[in-house]
Amino acid sequence: MECHQAIGKAIVFIENHLNEPIKASDVAGAVPYSYYHFHRYFSAVMGESIGSYIRSRRLTQAAWELVHTEKEYWILGFPSTLNRRKVLREHSRVDTV
Hints:
This protein is mainly α. The chain has five helices and no strands.
């Protein structure tokens, strides 16, 4: 498998398991590379670590759900309004209500 295909396969794996507890080693296990080599390659190509990418995607999804659904912030894993505002502001540089 070509390295760029492995990145694509890893991203699909992350998207399919976004609402589950996953680790970088789980993502590396979904492609035919060792964790060490894949983590280095992913970081070089994507500009962030696998764990950072997963966190970023989860925050983006949570922000989308806060805007487009009737879900409450605590359902999305934010224990308080202040924590939600801080995390989303740091992630997106946009203040939330």
